[in-house]
Design a protein that fits this description.
Order of helices and strands of chain A: EHEEEHHEHEEHEEHHEHEEEEHHH
Helix content of chain B: 25-40%
Shape of chain B: globular
Distance between the termini of chain B: 59 Å
Helix content of chain A: 10-25%
Structural class of chain B: alpha/beta
Strand content of chain B: 15-25%
Distance between the termini of chain A: 38 Å
CATH topology of chain A: Alpha-Beta Plaits
CATH class of chain A: Alpha Beta
Number of strands of chain A: 14
CATH topology of one domain in chain B: Dimethylsulfoxide Reductase, domain 2
Strand order of the largest sheet of chain B: 5-4-21-20-19-6-7-18
Radius of gyration of chain B: 28 Å
Oligomer: heterodimer
Number of strands of chain B: 32
Largest sheet of chain A: 4 strands, mixed
């Protein structure tokens, strides 16, 4: 990596998503959308989204879009998702039907063919052993940000004070190389402004000591955020002490600072007579596909710690994940 | 630690006060400044980044919440900049309770975009009078004066020419916005109109709970879910429809609790369960009774609890199947006192606490949520002392007339029935493996505390009462009641206005006894000429209904065969949610000479109204909010003045009452006598009554009136809530409030041992009423779902993640997170046999109605049913009219028509027939008609 915009930050903000607690409610999606992406040109973009996995995701089939790093080399030829792959934002003409006497139904226009959550809860497998899992996604504020390196205009930089990767809207010239380079499909192009838009990590909130909207407003209490060098923070404990928070698609090579606690809670398979079997419904290979080979070991730690709780003993790890106080999961949630 | 239990750490620790240039101070802004500052002054505030900083800024911050029937009651802050409401965010200041995760943040995907309804295209800006047909959407904009005069004319003419009881006011759920609720009820009370029940009509009222416990319902606050060690999530889907509370379950699981999710489909909550129990729809009572069977067989039951707290030891005459009454045994004895068999003295013993026993201290108040007030009995009244009543055996007693009869405890009578529910038999009914039933029963009895969390999935059925009775039995036999982490916890509808007395005093100024409460299910069934097809299932509804109405067990308005004439609806979308929708549109709605809707958005009821009055959005008025899901009362207040020409509901009814007085004078019809209540009414005084001579002129005054008039909120002020945030109730319904301890109900009965407000003074599982005998439900049994519709698929209409009933169904943001319109969902197998592909248009139909909707194929759906999230607006993306309510008729279970049996009597939302909506059967086929795009 060689880019003058990539400084080693003084501190790195780290986000953790606990997939055992995420309920797929989209509160984070809406909270983020209402705060940051309400202007023309941003209708289709969800800096934060929650999709169903296994599934095609948002943008559609992003997991095969390319970009990231291979053997340390930036992959510049990743796919630039089309509006159809994001989902063409449809509009409704309520006023005409409700106030002007227009006949018929209020229909979405254009006719919806795809949307960011089109295949919600469809998953795979056969009832009652079918599976699905919610997967919240955002910019990973990577340590090796492919977007940053790909930018020909030095418009993307890593903030020294918190390690958040930001598009400088004054410098962005709309080259869109960042969009091709990001393997997670988390940089968007604003056609109206002709600029790249992406998650800013809620840095204005961070600066004031307030957790980002997707974290502070997560009603499932599934999110942690903190500086990874703060040894008292839950992110430090989960990522560095217990090592149960791991990146998604580590093979993309960007070293995300958004980590996931894989789902270890979930029902068992049933035989044809409805008896419970020993194996869990969620297959290991699905999780390995998302989180790499490490995930098996992580699940073992999590299960062992919950077993202590079931036996009536304590578990510091489970307590950290439960997070009785929101304050213990994040820099202050209060606004 | 501050009052939120917070220990602010991290990089904020060592900072001093730094002011925020861009945040202008308001009263609340000041309070939070200390929490929002830049400790190290490390950021450069001069650069381009200010662009984003300004996006997150405001000059005013107020309290807000969403006054919608969702049960959440989520405290928020509302952020305004330059007079425009920008966004909302959970206030996160609900005080933390001990030993459980905190409630914060409360607020979901809908609540975080509630501002959309202020500025959205559905907003009603001006008073409107219809110029086209009802539902066409053609309007004439009029002044407030003209609109009110139009409505007042209709009201005065109706009173003059017909009767005041031809006027309906429909507005549901006082807990959601008690001041708004009260405005219309108060108005109806003063003119002698009638208001409507809603909790029963919505199918949310747990009739089975009233049958067993003599209560409208009560439930633990959701923080107590965390205390359950075995949790049966049964007929509810918290991850989708109790979003602010769902985390307690995930956290309980991490804490070592075992969660079963019992549901026909593999739903969002089931993904977090230890065990997913895929049950056939509507067979829940069988499963619960099989668990009871296992618990009894394996002797895992709590004998003491059964003997002290339930009627299971009470004696039944084998000759008449009736309870052995004091009147049987003693000349002139009570019909409402009962016996058990003392195993020591071998004699029948009269039991204390029954309906026939009057407490020494007579109750001054009869709370609406109880069959009668038994709290005035002394503590320990149910204590058995040395008495050891028999649960089993057959005994002989000599009646007063000298005849000897055999008697058996209820438990003995029940045993042969219970024996039928072996895991093997029940497995055939429910599709649940015997091994799972047995394990679940053992866990529930031994891995305690154990609780059931339930909702619409079990409560929206015709036989939901039997399900609830079985659930309560399961808790009673295992002693899982009255303690933290236990009980049958039922949540559908935001039904619990905890400071009830304040709400009642404001809403029913002449007292509830002098107010006409219309039972909405009966009203709709009767005036809508609904065909229920129940003869196919062997139930003659008309027979039971006729008896209930003729004997006055249930009310019907208007009286004396009159038709309803005026319908005033607000804070509810009655037409859109009406079961038997097609019958209602065809038969009931045209009976109305005048339909009025007060609303901030043009929902279906507004669209089909004659006059539409613009009301203030939730962020434009003052009101209170509360719920059964937590024990805190909080408020909303104006972030901005009501937009366009809208006004708060409280003000609208004040203005309407004034206008009615003026119109009455003009017409020379001001006074009339209300014979039913012996009230001489005078419309010229209406306005003064409505605002109590100016003491209740504003919604703020009305809020404070409620707080002042209920023991649960004594000493609280609106200002206190505004400044300090949500306030915890001082007392509650069936348990005391303890500081820092999650509320769980029934402690007045279980711990203080006061009688239950039922006929027997116990949790009563045996109901010796002719209707119950005729239907074979004198004891909790499994009754198969109604199959009166001769169609192959069960029609399931649950709540949705993306809407609260119809609210937000029209929200663009929510729609874009789905597929742009309503959908039904079916299994891949059912789709394949019908040649249906994902996203096809399909027709869902039966004899009652049809709806044409997009179809989604979902692997987790069970074959044999269609799911359609309920109540999209009539004008959204559905072809050809109708909605999810069209294929659902109104069906009345006769057990809920009983009103002459001690605790089983009509009181609004306490007991009465519910709106059954899960038993309907339909067929589904590809839509082959035209689709405009």
């Amino acid at each position: 990596m060689s880019n003058k915009m990539l400084t080693t930050p003084m501190r790195q903000l780290t986000y953790i998503v606990d997939l055992n607690k995420c309920i797929g409610c989209q509160t984070c999606t809406v909270a983020c959308k209402k705060l940051w992406t309400t202007t023309p040109g941003q209708e289709f973009m969800y800096w934060r989204n929650v999709e169903t996995t296994p599934g095609r995701g948002y943008p559609r089939d992003w997991q095969n879009k390319g970009g990231g790093y291979k053997n340390g080399m930036l992959q510049k030829d990743g796919h630039r998702p089309t509006l159809e792959e994001y989902g063409v934002p449809f509009e409704f003409d309520y006023a005409a039907r409700l106030f002007e006497g227009k006949k018929g139904r209020v229909k979405p226009s254009p006719e919806p063919r795809w949307s960011p959550n089109w295949d919600e809860e469809q998953g795979v497998g056969e009832y009652p052993n079918n599976i699905f899992q919610y997967l919240p996604r955002m910019c990973n504020h990577c340590e090796n940000p492919a977007c940053l390196e790909a930018c020909p205009n030095d418009a993307i930089y890593k903030r020294a004070e918190d390690g958040l990767n930001i598009v400088n809207l004054e410098k962005c010239k709309g080259a869109q190389d960042c969009i091709k380079a990001c393997p997670y499909g988390k940089v968007y192009f604003n056609e109206t402004d002709q600029k790249a838009n992406k998650c800013i990590g809620c840095f204005p909130r961070i600066e004031k000591g307030v957790a980002p909207a997707c974290v502070a407003q997560c009603v499932g209490r599934a999110m942690h955020v903190g500086f990874i060098d703060d040894v008292e923070s839950s992110v430090y404990k989960l990522a560095n002490v217990w090592k149960v928070a791991i990146p998604m698609h580590p093979e993309f090579g960007t070293k995300p600072n958004v980590l996931y606690i894989p789902p270890f809670v979930g029902p068992a398979m049933q035989d044809e007579n409805g008896n419970m079997m020993m194996t869990q419904k969620m297959p290991l290979d699905v999780l390995q596909g998302l989180f790499g080979p490490e995930v098996g070991g992580v699940l073992a730690v999590l299960k062992a710690e919950r077993a202590k709780k079931i036996a009536g003993q304590g578990s510091k790890l489970m307590d950290t994940m439960i997070g009785e106080l929101s304050d213990s999961m994040m820099i202050s949630p209060m606004t | 630690m501050n009052k939120f239990g917070s220990t602010r750490r991290g990089f904020l620790k060592a900072m001093g006060q730094v002011s925020l240039g861009m945040l202008v101070n308001g009263s609340i802004v000041m309070r939070t400044l200390a929490q929002t500052k830049d400790p190290m002054m490390q950021h450069d505030y001069t650069g381009w980044e200010n662009f984003h900083r300004e996006q997150w800024s405001w000059d005013k911050k107020t309290r807000g919440t969403h006054l919608v029937n969702c049960t959440g009651s989520c405290p928020h802050f509302v952020y305004t900049r330059n007079g425009v409401v920008m966004r909302e965010e959970q206030s996160k200041d609900i005080p933390k309770l001990n030993g459980v995760p905190e409630y914060n943040p409360r607020g979901c995907n809908k609540g975080e975009c509630a501002v959309d309804y202020q500025y959205g295209p559905h907003r009603i800006k001006y008073p409107l009078i219809r110029v086209g047909e009802r539902g066409e959407g053609k309007w004439r904009r009029v002044s407030w004066d003209e609109a009110l005069e139009y409505v007042a004319n209709g009201i005065v003419d109706t009173i003059k020419n017909d009767a005041s009881d031809c006027i309906s006011v429909f507005t549901p759920v006082p807990a959601v916005a008690p001041v708004s609720f009260a405005a219309g009820h108060r108005f109806a009370s003063f003119i002698g109109g009638h208001t409507h029940t809603f909790f029963d009509w919505y199918a949310d009222h747990p009739t089975g709970q009233t049958q067993v416990q003599g209560l409208q319902g009560d439930t633990c606050e959701t923080a107590d879910w965390y205390n359950g060690r075995t949790i049966l999530m049964w007929g509810a889907n918290s991850a989708s429809t109790r979003i602010p509370d769902a985390h307690f379950l995930q956290e309980a699981v991490l804490n070592g609790s075992k969660m079963y999710v019992i549901s026909p489909d593999f739903n969002s909550t089931a993904t977090k369960a230890d065990v997913f129990v895929p049950i056939k729809p509507g067979t829940d009572a069988a499963l619960a009774l099989s668990m009871v069977h296992v618990i009894v067989k394996e002797k895992l039951y709590d004998e003491h609890n059964l003997k002290e707290q339930t009627d299971l030891p009470f004696l039944i005459r084998t000759d008449t199947k009736m309870y052995l009454r004091e009147a049987d045994m003693v000349e002139g004895g009570s019909e409402e006192k009962f016996y058990t068999w003392d195993t020591k003295t071998k004699k029948p013993v009269l039991m204390k606490g029954s309906w026939g026993e009057e407490p020494e201290k007579r109750a001054k108040l009869q709370p609406g949520f109880m069959g009668r007030n038994t709290f005035v009995f002394p503590d320990g009244h149910l204590d058995l002392g040395d008495l050891d009543p028999a649960l089993e055996g057959t005994f002989k007693v000599k009646l007063a007339d000298g005849v000897k009869v055999n008697v058996q405890p209820v438990f003995e009578v029940y045993k042969p029935k219970l024996n039928e529910y072996t895991p093997e038999n029940v497995s055939k009914i429910t599709g649940v493996a015997p091994s799972v039933i047995i394990q679940m029963a053992r866990d529930f009895a031994m891995n305690k505390p154990s609780m059931i969390i339930t909702g619409g999935g079990t409560n929206h059925w015709y036989w939901s009462d039997t399900v609830l009775r079985a659930f309560i039995l399961l808790c009673a036999v295992t002693g899982n009641e009255g303690y933290n982490g236990t009980g049958v916890n039922h949540y559908v509808g935001q039904w619990k206005p905890t400071p009830l007395l304040g709400v009642v005093k404001l809403s029913f100024p002449h007292s509830p006894k002098k107010h006409r409460f219309c039972q909405t299910t009966i009203w709709t069934y009767y005036h809508g000429n609904v065909y229920d097809a129940m003869e196919n299932d062997g139930v003659d509804t008309a027979k039971y209904l006729r008896e209930a109405l003729e004997t006055g067990q249930m009310p019907l308005y208007p009286q004396n065969g009159r038709d309803p004439k005026v319908f005033i609806c607000y804070r509810g979308n009655w037409l859109n949610n009406a079961k038997g929708l097609d019958y209602v549109l065809r038969n009931l709605w045209p009976k109305m000479n005048l339909t009025v809707d007060m609303n901030f958005r043009m929902d279906s009821t507004a669209l089909y109204s004659d006059v539409v009055l613009p009301s203030a959005h939730w962020y434009e008025k003052t009101d209170l909010s509360m719920t059964e899901e937590h024990t805190f009362i909080h408020m909303t207040e104006p972030a901005i003045a009501p937009l366009w020409e809208s006004k708060p509901d409280w003000e609208i009814f004040a203005l309407l009452s004034k206008k009615v007085g003026e119109v009455a004078k003009k017409k020379g019809f001001t006074k009339y006598f209300d014979e039913k209540f012996n009230i001489a009414r005078d419309l010229t005084k209406l306005h003064d009554q409505q605002i109590d001579g100016g003491k209740l002129a504003t919604d703020e005054q009305a809020c404070q009136f409620i707080l002042d008039n209920a023991p649960q909120t004594q000493g609280m002020t609106l200002d206190m809530i505004r400044k300090e945030g949500p306030q915890r109730f001082k007392s509650n319904w069936t348990s005391p409030m303890k500081e820092g301890v999650p509320y769980t109900p029934y402690q007045h009965f279980i711990m203080k041992k006061k009688p239950w407000p039922t006929l027997t003074g116990r949790e009563q599982f045996y109901i010796d009423h002719p209707t119950f005998f005729e239907l074979g439900v004198e004891l909790p049994v499994y009754k198969a779902p109604v199959d009166a519709d001769q169609y192959p698929l069960r029609f399931n209409t649950p709540h949705s993640r993306y809407s609260v009933h119809s609210t937000w169904k029209d929200n663009v943001l929510q729609q874009r997170l789905q597929r742009g319109g309503p959908m039904c969902e079916i299994s891949p197998a059912d789709a394949e046999t019908r040649g249906i592909k994902d996203n096809d248009w399909v027709e869902v139909f039966n004899d009652h109605g049809r709806v044409v909707v997009r179809c989604k194929i979902r692997n987790g759906e069970q074959s044999g049913r269609v799911t359609m999230h309920h109540e999209p607006e009539l004008y959204v993306d559905l072809l050809g009219g109708g909605n999810s309510q069209s294929p659902i008729p109104v069906r009345i279970n006769p057990t809920a028509l009983v009103g002459n049996y001690a605790h089983l009597k009509f009181k609004p939302n306490y007991y009465g027939p519910g709106g059954v909506q899960r038993d309907a059967r339909v067929e589904i086929r590809r839509h082959t008609g035209s689709v405009t795009v």
